[in-house]
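Marked as duplicate of an earlier ticket. Keeping the data here for the record.
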Amino acid sequence: MKKILLTGASGFLGGNFCHLYAHQFDIHAIHNGHPVQDKNVKSHQTDITDSAALEACFHQINPDAVIHLAAYSDPNKCELQPEVSEKINIEASENLAYLCKEAKIPMLFSSTDLVFDGKNAPYKESDLPVPVNVYGLHKSIAEHSILDIYPEATICRLPLMYGTDFGHKPNLLHQILKKLTEGEELKLFTDEYRSVASARDVCAGLILCLEHPGQIFHLGGDERISRYGFGKLICEIFDFDKDLIVKSKQKDVQMPAPRPKDVSLSSEKAKSMGWKPGNIRDELEGIKKEMESKL
């Protein structure tokens, strides 16, 4: 069984990866403050910004591959605390690249659609990153640094994701469902577009892309949708009042981090290798059935 060192395992995507693949791989999850609550996953408390501690943990685990999902991923926090973002998003990623290069093992780095400026979507892997905020900038720098250090590394740019929560932070779907359940109005942007994808599909894409070293992949869903459109669809499928979803415009909301308007991704490269992202409606209906089965 292949031994995978997984960072960011207590986050949303990492939690889904552990849930889906703990029986297929020997997963060793690095966490800082939130241990992984899965008896089939070995959890290691390590601060990835401490290079000596990271190296010691790496050699203790002696992995066959690394999937690096950990990130300081809130764009507003990155804008306000760029030094923290730099340590986590760039420096820790570079240190992992050096370790993987030395060990000659596969490394996958999760990047973001926010490396683009939102003016020329849908974006292909060959399109030049032009980030408009610190988070996108630091992820873009990390991409280049990792491939400079270890040309055999794999980069996966990921979209806005949704799915079942297995980590300690609620994802967009459950944030919306919580508000709707409480009967609260929810203002969602009509002028910000992403190629949203389910965490389940993205995890399958990560496994596929890990087998293709030295390349960049996009793992966006097939449908370009706004947060407002996503919220309306959730109301329809989960039987909530659509009037609770209120139109809002990104340009009218003051935020520390600028946001690109349309960073939808072209994922034809990954699909040509066999990746098959589901459509949003089917995925949401599946999640609804899972939730109902647990009641």
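See parent ticket for discussion. The first strand starts at residue 3 and ends at 7.
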